[in-house]
Amino acid sequence: MAQLWGGRFTKETDQLVYNFNASISFDKKFYQQDIRGSIAHVTMLAKQGILTEEEMTQIIDGLNGILKDVEEGRLEISDNYEDIHSFVEANLIDRIGEPGKKLHTGRSRNDQVALDMKLYTRDEVLETDALLKSLLEELLKIMEENLDTFMPGFTHLQKAQPITLAHHMGAYFEMFKRDRSRMADIYKRMNTCPLGSGALAGTTYPLDREYTAQLLDFDSATLNSMDSVSDRDYLIEYLSALSTIMMHLSRFSEEVIIWNTNEYQFVEIDDSYSTGSSIMPQKKNPDIAELVRGKTGRVYGALMSLLTTMKGIPLAYNKDMQEDKELTFDAIDTVKGCLALFTGMISTMTFNKDRMESSAKNGFTNATDAADYLVNHGVAFRDAHGIVGRLVLYCIDKGISLDEMTLEEYQKISPAFQEDIYDAISMKTCVEKRTTIGAPGQEAMKQVIAANRKYLEEN
Fold first, then answer.
1. Which residue of the set 78, 156, 272, 278 is catalytic?
2. Where do the domains of the chain lie, and which CATH numbers do they carry?
């Protein structure tokens, strides 16, 4: 077998080189965008008198015919073509003859692929945003239904202070809301049209680039033809935002996995989002949450790959940039799948409310409130901190919670405790007296929920 490093290329090596160079296996995803861009391009060419109206009509009819045949399965995008652009152009010429050869007037594959990638990415940004909104809708529903579901809040994975499930879900609402704002930023910044930039230095044809941009729903044409064909910043931004989404999903998944353990039993994952063990019949595994957590690294990898690809590329276009596609496509599909599945999982998940509240009580999450109680009864905070520390040690030794101590036991440690200590350290009191905006108290949470509902209605 001839090798690439042979003294001369053989036919087989030529095929290897061709295969290595070709992008049709992955850029065939662009067939809709490529045809849409070509229709806008020839429409502009006719407007400028570069094509006749008749030529424009023939080309557009031919392009629409190719689109219809591909979508209805009558025309296969095969690997016989180097890329999606040559597939469309060759089929167009086969169908309409000479006018088809004029499709590429005033255009290069460089600005053509730049356009296709932007059109494709722009659509995917919108789809990602829609999936984020669906997740936010589900989170808000859980918040609305769990204003009185008490649970422990954690720091260092240690039970810290009592909160509500609504408050906990609200933290993730904020994260995914920021992710949506990143989608809006990316869309706005990337929405300029590169078509008409040529290979790198524009063209001598009298193109109306602003008209093409308008036809394709861009805000404007790009202002530098070299940057137009070599810009992948918008992809790096999008992959960065996708990585942040996956980081948020992974954090959330980690909590679901912990909450699903026998030790916590905070949640019951629906059977449709769980699997069993091949040898252990008692097992119910949180596979979706684990896979989401695992796939996060895959999306990070796409971001690092593209950053590394782009870091040493001089202006303008270089073939390295073809590497922007496969990993980006994979990352997009991964994130969209994870968002859809995660939303389905939490929408069918049930929360063991009694278990959550019991965990908050037995974890001494109300210890800070017991200290505050003493301060309000004239004890210096540092002394109060020490007294409550002794209370906790006493409870641990007895195997009870602060709520289960008798008043006599309280007063043996500090005479400042009175009968009202029980109300002061109840889960309801501990949560409800935290009324500042952003805190878990019910009145504060109702304001946040109303703001979140308005946000989703307006966005």
1. 156
2. 11-105 (1.10.275.10), 110-149+163-357 (1.20.200.10), 359-458 (1.10.40.30)
